[in-house]
Amino acid sequence: MIVEIIINDLNRTLVKLGYSNIDVKVSKCKNPEFGDFSSSIPLVLGKIHKKTPIDIAHKIRSEMISSSNILDEITITDPGFINFKISLEYYFGILNDILNDSDFGKSNIGKNKTANVEFVSANPTGPLTVGHGRNAILGDVVSNILEWNGYEVTREYYFNNAGRQMRILSKSVEARYFENLGKSFDFPEDGYEGEYIADIAEEIIDVYGKDLKFDDLVFSSFPEKMMFEHIKNTLSVLGIKFDEFSNEKTFYDNGDIEKLLSELKAKDLLYEKDGATWFKTTSLGKEKDRVFIKGTGEPTYRLPDTAYHRNKVERGFDLIIDVFGADHMDTYPDVVLALQALGLKTEHIKVLLYQFVTLLRGGEKIKMSTRKATFISLDDLVDEVGVDVVRYFFVMRGINTHLNFDLDLAADQSDKNPVYYLQYAHARICNIINRIESQRKDLNAYNQSLLTHESEIVLLKQLELFPNIVLSALDSLEPQIIASYLQVTATKFHKYYANCRIINEDKDLTLSRIALARATKNILNSGLSILGINAPEKM
User: Which residue from 329, 370, 379, 427 could staple onto 539, CB 3.0 to 4.6 Å apart?
Assistant: First the structure.
C-alpha cells in the first residue's frame, strides 16, 4: 500500500515539475538510516534531461514535503537518490484499519468476473497419491486467492474414464475377481497391483455375485465408481470441494472431437503419416509437428484436451487456470496453439506448472510407483501428519521448485515445524487476549501513539504489507508468497512478545500493545484462511 502511495505522490510531483511518462520505481532503503523507501528517479531524469540529479532531487523534495501527509522526512544521498521516511501516524492508521475492517487486505479486482480453475484431474485408477496432493492444494489455494480478490470461481475436475489407463484398471480388477474365486485368469501387463484392486474385486463379488463373465461391463463401471467415491472423500478431508466434473468421453459422444478434427482439417492443419494423424504445428511456427491420433487409433492428450479447453473458452470465463505437473510442459502449448488456429481467445488461459514431490524419511528418499502400489497415498499422509501440515507443506515452496516433503519435520509438533510455529503465534495471541478480556471489556480504548518500541514499529510495518502480499499472490498465482509472509509475520510477533511485555503495570500501554496483538491475530487468521489452514485458539 505505502509503496503505491509514494509512487502516486512522486508521479504527481513530477508532472508539476514538468516531467511526464516516467516509469517511477520505489524500493526499500538498503540502509535504514536513510529512510524507509528510496527512488533513483533523479538519476533517471538527470540522464534524460542532461541535468544534475542532486538538483532534481532537491526540487522533488521541496514539492513533496509540503504536500504529503504520510512523510516525516525526505533525504537526498549521492549520487542522486531520494529517500522517504514514513510517518508513524500512517502506520497507526493501518492498525485502526486492520482492527475495524474484517475485509482488510481484500480487493475488488475480480468483481463481476469469473474464473475456472482446473486441478487434480487424476483418472480414477487408484487412490490419490502425494504427487496429486501438491496439485490439489495448489489449485485450491489459487482458487482461494482469486475469491479473496473478488472472482467468482468454478473449481473443475477433468478426467478420462475411457482411455488405456481405465482399461488396464478394469482388466486388473477382473483378474483379481477371478483369482479371488480360485479361477484361472491372466493379469494384464502393466496392471495395477495394489491391495485396493483386490478390495474392489471382493466388493464386486459381494454386490454382483460369483457368476460374472470375462469382459462384463461391471468390471469397467464399478471400479470407476468406487475409486471416484474414494477420491472425493480424500479431497473432502482436505477441505476441497469441486463445482464441476468434466469427462473426456463427453467430447467424443457429443461430437466435439469430430468437429475439432474437421475444422483443423479444413484449415489444412492435419495430415496422415505412418498410420497416425498429425497436427501440422510447423505451419504455426513450431519446429516439429505433433501426433494427434496414434497409429493404434489411440488419441494423444492433445486432441481431447483441445476440445475440452475449447469448451471452457466457449463457457465465457474471464480467466481460465490449469494446474499441471511439469510433465505437461510439452503438451499444453500445442493445445493453446490449436485454439488460436481456430480463432479462439487464449490470452486469458494461464497454465501453472508445478515441480514434483519427493518424500523423505530419516533423510532418505522414499521410492514410489503407482502401478506397483508402492506409494504413500494422500490419505496415509494426512493420517500421519494432519490436514493443516499437508496443506502448508505443499505451498511453502514455490511452484517451480522441487518439493522435498520431510515426513520427520512434518510430524514434529515443536516450533521446528513451520506450521506449528505459525499456528502457535495465533494461539499465543488468543491466550493473551483472553487474559486481558477478563480484566478489561473495552479493548478499543487504546492509544496507538504509545507504540514506540522498535519491535512494535517493525511489526506494524509487517502488517501493513498484507494487502500488497495478496495482490502479489494474485498477480503471480503463487501461494508460497502468502505462506512466506505469514512465517515472517509470526517471527516478528514472537520477537515483539519477547521484547515487549504486553500485559504490564501501565494499563494504557497494555491496551495499546493488546491492540497490536489483535491486529496481528487478524492478519494471521486471514492469511491462514486463504491457505485453508486452521487458526487454533489453543495449542
Answer: 427
What is the three-class DSSP state of 20?
Answer: coil
Burial per residue of 359-397, b for 16 or more beta-carbon CB atoms within 10 angstroms, e otherwise = beeeeeeeebebbebebbbbbebbeebbebbbbbbbbbb
Report residue 441's pLDDT band, with 50, 70 and 90 as the boundaries.
low
Distance of alpha carbon 182 from alpha carbon 206, whole angstroms: 16
Q: Is residue 189 part of a domain?
A: yes
3-class secondary-structure state, position 321: strand
Q: How far apart are the first and last CA of the chain?
A: 33
**Whole-angstrom distance, CA of residue 48 vs CA of residue 44:** 6
Give 307's strand partners. none
Statement to judge: residues 20 and 97 lie in one domain: no
Helical packing angle, 41-49 and 53-67, nearest 10°: 130
Rounded average pLDDT over 187-210:
93
DSSP 374: B
Taking the CA of residue 74 as centre, how many other CA atoms within 13 Å lie in the half-sphere pointing to its CB? 22
Sign of CA dihedral 163, 165, 166, 172: positive
Distance CA 204, CA 226 (A): 10
Do 396 and 451 share a structural domain?
no
Q: Are residues 78 and 99 in the same domain?
A: no
Which three cell numbers mark 303? 486432441
Residue reference for cell 478420462: 160
Q: What is the CATH number of the domain that holds 500?
A: 1.10.730.10
Q: Which amino acid is at 197?
A: I
Per-residue confidence band for 375, with pLDDT thresholds at 50, 70 and 90: confident
Domain span at residue 324 reads: 254-349
SS3 344: coil
Same domain for 341 and 267, yes or no, is: yes
Single-letter amino acid code for the residue at 136: A
Structural domain count of the chain: 4
pLDDT exceeds 90 at position 302: yes
More confident position, 67 or 480:
480
Angle at the Cα of 249 (from 245 to 254), degrees rounded to 5? 100
- Assess whether 388 and 471 both reside in one domain: no
Q: Report if residue 248 sits inside a domain.
A: no
> DSSP class of residue 299?
B
- In three state form, how does the secondary structure of 56-90 look? HHHHHHHHHHHHCCCEEEEEEECCCEEEEEECHHH
On whether both 309 and 234 belong to a single domain, the answer is no
Last-in-domain residue among 302, 323, 349 = 349
Name the β-bridge partners of 321.
Answer: 117, 350
**Shared-domain flag, residues 420 and 401:** no
Query: Does 115 fall in a domain?
Result: no
Site of grid cell 532534481: 56
Is residue 181 domain-resident? yes
